[in-house]
Amino acid sequence: MRPPRRLLIQADGLRRCLCPRLNDVALSRSLLTSPRNLSSAAAAAIVTPPVDPPPVYAAPPRAPTHSRPTPVPPTALPPLEQISRLASRRSPAVFSTASLLVASGALAPSLRLYEILIGACVVGGHGVSLQATAFSLLDDMCARGIVPNANVYTMLLRLLARSTDYVRRARVLELMQQRWFEVGEQAWGWVVLGYLKDCQVEIALEMVVEREERGWEVGRWVYKALVKRLVELGEVQEALRVLRRIEGEFGGLVWQGVMRPEGRSRMWWELLVKGAKDMNIEVTRYVWYKALVHEAPLPMFTPSLGDCNLVLNCAARHSDASLAADVLRVLTEEGLPLSEHHYASLLEATASNSPTKCFSILSHMRSIGLPPTAFTAQPLVLHLSQTKSATDAASTSLLDLGGTADLAAVESVLAAYCALGELDAAFDVYTTIAQLTSAMPTTHTFNILLAGCAAAGEKALALYTLAEMRGMQVPPDQESYDAMVRVCVNACEPDAEGVERPWDDDVWTWLEAMKLKRWRLRRKSYELLAIGCAKRGDERAVKVVEELARIHPVGKVDALRAEVGRKLVWVKGREGREGR
């Protein structure tokens, strides 16, 4: 007997659940056969049992990794506590929230409320941008009859510590004095910072000194801000005095809890750089030796090449040879390259103390492959040219060296004699140059002698110098021709007795020779030539001025042109009077 169709359908469904592959077979058959007509009565009798959805298994709850209390929403707190929490979180919504709570009547204005809001203006990280808001709150609470306490005024002084509004600062201090509120240590420090921000350093120093004299404590953070501001304003002497008094025998230990060791090093470094820039030798010397020599066990900081150059220039300006030598020592130890200008600064620092050491420095430069240039020994020349006795002593020192002197040392003595107008002594040194140095004279050596001849108008000695150059096969350069032009012009000047000498036309020969070599006269030489021609009524002075204006267009020649014109008119008028 065949089972009923209902049971067959149920059994078929059970098989499909147990064997899902039958679903694919049924689906393929349904695609091949035509769909059944469900509109018939037999088909309508077939009722498919409802299929229950598969159970959904929820994942078990995860154990909490840490125990954190459930945060209380701000709206569930009392209104004043809500404002306090917003202020502690530095939320900008603290002011709008307080305004809404007060407007709705949920919160009444009180001293605590204003204290919280003014404190939010101070510690909100907004700087002085909320300064107007804080003082408007102060005015509002005073208008409501709420008397501010000392904490409110202290917070206002803290807000004004980075402001230049000295009017409001004076107002707060006056209100505190009227209410007999004492200015605490921190509030006093903020007042000092406010004066420093306003560049009123004298008032800040007076306050610090007065507090020290009374035996009251001064915060180290106040000293830190004071020193920093003094350095920024260029008061390096006062900054050094404050630092020496603070550190005393404890050194950097006094700054513990105020700033890190690198902060202290930076403070001393800024003082060194500012002192060197201002050419303050006392501050520069003290900070240099304290930071790099006396500080134990390691230097406070390592100066850069630029810092060393600043200190070296300061030492050279004040003739501190020991400091200059120590700077070169630090540069050598750090492996930084030494250049010619470093030794030039060392020469400037040593010249006024010991010219003989300068000769040794010049020899050392050439031995290390850094030969002196034409301007390296210029500080030595300036020192020797002050008195003839100093130049004579330097000349004697050259003889004592026994022919081991550098050529630059001999040239410095020659230049000093020429600057003093002692041409005879200069040529005496030149004739014994073989006994002073093993080097041969160069073009620069002869140019020094020619410049001395040009200044004195000694044409005979100048021609002798040119003959020596030809004999030693030393070629002249542009400076040599320029000196010869000046020699010819100055040789025509009146002698010591006032007797005028005839004009030397060789000056035009030297000028044309320079033009053939595409060389140019210096501006001073052009001016000297133009004035010399105008004094003798030579109309070529006008052409010299025009040529000067064309070759050196940077400088103005109007004054020279007017002077040449006046001299030409005066000479023509004198000739006319003599002709009558």
List keywords for this structure.
single chain, 0% strand, disordered N terminus, 580 residues
Helix content: 55-70%
Largest sheet features: none
Terminal CA distance: 174 Å
The helix-and-strand class reads mainly alpha
Please state roughly what percent of the residues sit in beta strands, choosing from under 5%, 5-15%, 15-25%, 25-35%, 35-45% or over 45%: under 5%
Please characterize this protein's 3D structure:
By secondary structure, this protein is an all-alpha fold. Among the domains are: 1-34, no CATH class; 338-427, no CATH class; 440-506; 522-580. 65% of the residues lie in helices and 0% in strands. It has 31 helices and no strands. Helix 21 runs antiparallel to helix 22 (407-420). The longest helix has 22 residues, at 558-579. It is elongated. The chain starts with a helix and ends with a helix. 30% of the residues are buried. The model is unreliable at 1-60 and 69-73 (pLDDT under 50).
Give a brief outline of the structure.
The protein has helices spanning 5-18, 21-32, 41-45, 79-88, 94-104, 111-123, 131-143, 150-159, 166-178, 185-197, 201-213, 220-232, 236-247, 261-277, 281-294, 305-317, 321-333, 340-351, 355-367, 378-384, 388-400, 407-420, 423-431, 433-436, 443-456, 459-471, 478-490, 506-516, 523-535, 540-551, 558-579. It has 580 residues and is mainly alpha-helical.
SSE blueprint and pairings:
Blueprint: H1 5-18, H2 21-32, H3 41-45, H4 79-88, H5 94-104, H6 111-123, H7 131-143, H8 150-159, H9 166-178, H10 185-197, H11 201-213, H12 220-232, H13 236-247, H14 261-277, H15 281-294, H16 305-317, H17 321-333, H18 340-351, H19 355-367, H20 378-384, H21 388-400, H22 407-420, H23 423-431, H24 433-436, H25 443-456, H26 459-471, H27 478-490, H28 506-516, H29 523-535, H30 540-551, H31 558-579
Helix pairs in contact: 4-5, 4-6, 6-7, 6-8, 8-9, 8-10, 10-11, 10-12, 12-13, 12-14, 14-15, 14-16, 16-17, 16-18, 17-18, 18-19, 18-20, 20-22, 21-22, 22-23, 22-25, 25-26, 25-27, 27-28, 27-29, 29-30, 29-31
